[in-house]
Queue: 2 jobs
Job 1
Amino acid sequence: MTLEADLVDVLDGETQTRMRSDLQSALKRRPAQEARLAGAVRALCPLSASLRGEMVAALDVMVRRGSFERPLYAATTRALAETAAPGTSELLARALLVEDAGGLSTLSAACFSRDTCLAEPLARAAISRHAHIAFGAEVARLCRGESNGAAVTSIAPKIKESHRIALCLELLVPLVRAAPLPAAIAPALAVLRDAERHLGRWLVLAEIATRAGDVACRNEAHERAQSGPESARSAWSLVAWALDPAAVSPGVRPTVELVARLSDRPSADKDPTFLFRFAGARAPTAKPMLESLAKSALLGDECAVRSMLHLCRDYGEERCRAQLLAIARAPRKDALRALALAALYDVGERERALALLGELSRSRHLSALAWCALVAARERGLFDGAVVTEAHYRRIQLGWVE
């Protein structure tokens, strides 16, 4: 987001009222669709000063209540820390002083804050008797330049499997999209990788280490792709490609099972994130699976829309423009229509997308409002690049708030 986003509020009056009402209602009674609300505020926080003010007030209430396990808390605390919203650091410091340091969501948010008031609470959390809490606190201190990495390396062997999974999903996945960590994190991540059996989580650990300057994991992935078990070589060749931006995409044809193994989510979720990453690089072997998903609802209508987006933008399949337009004009399923609208905008159909924006901006569906707000922000130049990014999709469409 640009600095202009701090001066211009993209959310119109009705949307601001809706977001304020939903946040206040969620604090009174936890809604069934809290994850959707959490994802929407996570995505829209950088676009609206008024929304940030409401989120700070909501965070204050959740810290006082100790509601650290709620998706809304995780979304709010991370988003506010990333945008350095006034009042956030003091609330984070209060949360860090409670038992378990406010959980991994609080420690995750602390990774994105540079406020000195967090130094002492993080130092206290780093000597917690719970290894995963101490590990998370040390990672935050590394991000903030307050640790040399020795402690985090000594703690890593003590992490239980269940805590390692939680650390990956709640603490480390957000750091993949953040600034590179110091090189001192590499030995600790190597310990966690040696114990990790899930290939997608292994890749998360390896990506952070690679961006920190460690090439050992990249070499290991290449070695396993060439001499590992025959049944795993295809997956490892994709991992090696993901860790080496200069590498030519391997001639591996993705399948539902293969891309699910490469997701940071549990394999049972059948999350196709890696497929769209592969497609974004215009890998020829990704096209057949994209075509299959675009014709069916095998992984959901949302995946079909994303497949059409990549086929049109990255593979020149012009027929997908008409398909996206038809979905955006359909009379029902506002959330899917708004996703198709954003995809239309990304493939260059800006006029058609903007013509539909007014109608969908009045939708009762929160996901539709969020997509419309992002398209409006992109049109006004408040951020660069695509609207339908992996982060936006996971937060708005799926309610994943990492």
Job 2
Amino acid sequence: MEIGMIIETTELSKRYGHQTAVKDLSLRIKEGEIFGFLGPNGAGKTTTLLMLLGLTQPSGGSATVCGLDPVRMAREVKRHVGYLPENVGFYGDMDAVQSLEYVAALNGIGNKGAREKIDDLLDLVGLKGDARKKTGAFSRGMKQRLGIAEVLMKDPTVLFLDEPTLGLDPEGAIQMIGLIQSLNQSRNITVLLSSHNLSQVQRISHRVGIMIAGSLIAEGSIDALAEASFGVGEKEYSLEEVYLKYFQEV
């Protein structure tokens, strides 16, 4: 693994029959950065996350996460990575505390250690007042925040977040983005953030990658991508403008 890189892929590919979902993806993500993973539906972003987690095997190429091969060491990778999928599921008859106790047990965390950790995490994600509320009655925003608490139970080094603000109202989305940024800054957690909300990605990402039709067509800081697309000038371009420029040129 290259020094300072926590995620690396080399010509990583995934094919389903004659359809290529991910094609020759070579990607480097530094420890402690927030990397915005952009692209339309079907671009291959979620498939990439699943390969990095060892939940689906690549058709070609290789990857390492925290220096581990997800194909051969999937269980070890999962100890280091917290994954929040697009649609978070809970047992609706459990309350927030019970849900986190269940996750703690799955991760081998003893009752004493779990109790203190659960209190701290519910406070962190703003659900302390709803600790004994059944998750079946949670709003989508509350479920997303509880999902963040769940993935933090094992103190991950890396977070994979797939559309964490999808379906949230503006206030809920702002709170979620603020929480992600806070976790990155206070705990040095590396974040791979897949999202359609370009303004939110621009607000917190150190670098972004644009994926279209399974291929990574651009990667870098927003300023560097803007300069490559529009040249040097006085105007400061938004991520949306940069994204559309690359999208139109494919």
